[in-house]
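Saturday, quiet lab. Running sequence design on the structure tokens for the scaffold JK sent over.
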């Protein structure tokens, strides 16, 4: 009887643990659209109703890249800078190929007043510089996504004191 307990009981435990782990397996979202809980999370951050975040590909992109560290010249999830993030978002979310530095992107875009910004517009900053030094993508409700030097990919408000101080212009890609 001890022999059976010594072999059978561990086998049963292994079987139960293995079955349990299958229930918790991560599923991938093959549609590249954000689940409702993800939309709710970012709607709460930006202070809007979930119904205002209509572009699920954009929400999925934000979620997939959020927290990726900043790396000057970087263009992947190992590290990304602001212009590479914007160009990647345009490719993945809007199926539009753009490239260049923040300065290049500002020159290519049609200027848009801050009060007229729409989802997908670019926001440009002159941070302690005479030249454009930073770019992000406008989402909604004055929030934009960008690659912050200190905190990586994140959302901030144009109303934040720091960004309000350095905001230069908005831009819409033709």
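Result came back. Writing it out in full:
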């Amino acid at each position: 009887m001890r022999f059976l307990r010594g072999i059978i009981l561990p086998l049963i435990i292994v079987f139960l643990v293995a079955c349990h782990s299958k229930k918790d397996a991560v599923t991938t979202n093959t549609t590249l659209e954000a689940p409702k809980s993800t939309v709710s999370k970012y709607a709460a951050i930006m202070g809007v109703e979930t119904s205002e975040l209509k572009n699920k590909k954009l929400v999925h992109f934000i979620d997939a890249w959020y927290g990726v560290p900043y790396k000057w010249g970087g263009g992947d999830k190992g590290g990304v800078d602001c212009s590479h993030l914007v160009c990647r978002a345009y490719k993945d979310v809007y199926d539009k190929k753009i490239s260049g530095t923040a300065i290049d992107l500002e020159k290519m875009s049609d200027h848009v007043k801050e009060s007229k910004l729409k989802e997908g517009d670019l926001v440009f900053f002159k941070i302690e510089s005479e030249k454009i030094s930073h770019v992000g993508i406008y989402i909604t409700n004055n929030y934009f996504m960008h690659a912050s030097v200190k905190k990586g990919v994140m959302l901030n408000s144009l109303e934040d004191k720091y960004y309000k101080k350095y905001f230069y212009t908005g831009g819409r890609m033709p």
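Notes for JK: Residues 88 and 146 are 12 Å apart (CA to CA). Residues 2-23 form the longest helix (22 residues). Ask whether to fix the surface positions before the next round.
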